[in-house]
Amino acid sequence: MPGKKQSISRWFAYLSAAVALLLTITILRYPEVAFTASLEGLKIWFDIVLPALLPFFVMSEILMGLGVVHFIGVLLEPFMRPLFRIPGVGAFAVAMGLASGYPIGAKITAQLRREDLCNGVEGERLVSFANTADPLFMVGAVAIGMFGIQEIGWTIAAAHYLSVVIVGFLMRFIPEKDTSTARPSLPPRRANIISRAFSALEEARIRDGRSFGQLFGDAIRETFSSMLFIGGCIMIFSVLGRILDVSGVTQAIQNCLGVFFRSIAINDAVIPPLVRGIIEITIGCEAISQVNAPLLLRTVLASFIIGWSGLSVHAQVATMLRGTDIRLGPYIVARALHGILAAVLTVILWRPIAAMAASGISIPFTVGLGEAPFFTRMGISLRTAAATTGCLIGLGTILNLVRNVRIIFIRVR
């Protein structure tokens, strides 16, 4: 058995080296294309990704160091544990992931695992549905900025979030394999849950021990290191997608899949942008918005790409999870399932949401947000991060007040 495993590892090493060499030669063969694609990826990172993620990355680091995440975890433990089989602190990762987008959910999950606030299997469940696209991207960038139709943002967002909740619930059935148990997020029971939440905050702050100035500096340093890596991933995978186009690989894939697509009456012209989307989410969505195909088909494929999230995001997640025992395999399966569910739900929700939009209900995002300048996006992201944290604290408090309500029946004889 060890010999077979060593043989597989050796062949994988040979194959990886051959693919890397081939890609390098191809880039040298088409230097202008590679340069243009890298600039395109850099523009996407600076205009869309950086202002959207920067405040969330900084705030998550600071809130973790200040113990606010531990406070939220105690409040939401009775809700998250029975429904998704993850600790209460997972609610912070889910909320930040839903509000901010890739890959903040994976980053926070890795932080929770390193602090032993969840075990490996709980981390796999959490990252599978906490790492999602954000509404600013789906509505502002895709629906308004790329498609030019703000109404389809409702459909894409609704299908995305419904499917991610379904995926999160299904991931609860991953069997427990860890014999070790994570440090409980709930401190010893005393008084009411609010007191225990404040106790958890105080203990976490003492355990961290850094001054606020040091905490802020570390948060900025870690954030920009992560943001530079994310920008590098977007640029590299942008180049990879364009190289596959000019080298004829995409055309070969289109020829292979064309027979199947035509057999189910789907225009095979969508194959090249779909391949681009499988590699990089933003470039794929933009390409699919420009293809000559029915609007419903383009929207369905955009929903699939957003749910799948692209190999570029998968590489970012793999790096964020490095150093933990959280496996990437369940995450990849969850992303494929998420993409399929989002595509199916887009078809189901297409008519009802179109009718609702036609009734005059305005979409809750500013028209033209797709072209919003850098600092406008940064301000929206900062306000969203603050509002998300406040909503989590408020929701946890309300849920626990409701749980402690006792209804007294008085029977009159």
List keywords for this structure.
413 residues; single chain; 17 helices; 77% helix; mainly alpha
Q: Largest sheet, if any?
A: none
* Total helical segments: 17
- Structural class, by secondary structure, is mainly alpha
Strand content: under 5%
Shape: globular
Q: How many extended strands?
A: 0
* Domains (count): 1
Percent helix, as a range, is over 70%
N/C terminus separation: 78 Å
- Rg to the nearest angstrom? 23 Å
Mean pLDDT: 81
Instruction: Tell me the series of helices and strands, N- to C-terminal.
Output: HHHHHHHHHHHHHHHHH
Low-confidence stretches: 179-187, 365-370
Explain what this protein looks like in three dimensions.
- It contains 17 helices and no strands.
- It has helices at residues 2-29, 31-66, 68-84, 90-100, 104-114, 120-130, 135-147, 152-170, 193-208, 212-246, 249-263, 271-279, 281-290, 295-308, 310-320, 329-358, 374-403.
- Helix 8 packs antiparallel against helix 16 (329-358) and helix 14 runs antiparallel to helix 16.
- Residues 179-187 and 365-370 have low confidence and may be disordered.
Summarize the SSE layout with pairings:
Layout: H1 2-29, H2 31-66, H3 68-84, H4 90-100, H5 104-114, H6 120-130, H7 135-147, H8 152-170, H9 193-208, H10 212-246, H11 249-263, H12 271-279, H13 281-290, H14 295-308, H15 310-320, H16 329-358, H17 374-403
Q: Briefly, what is this?
A:
By secondary structure, this protein is mostly helical. The chain is built from 17 helices and no strands.
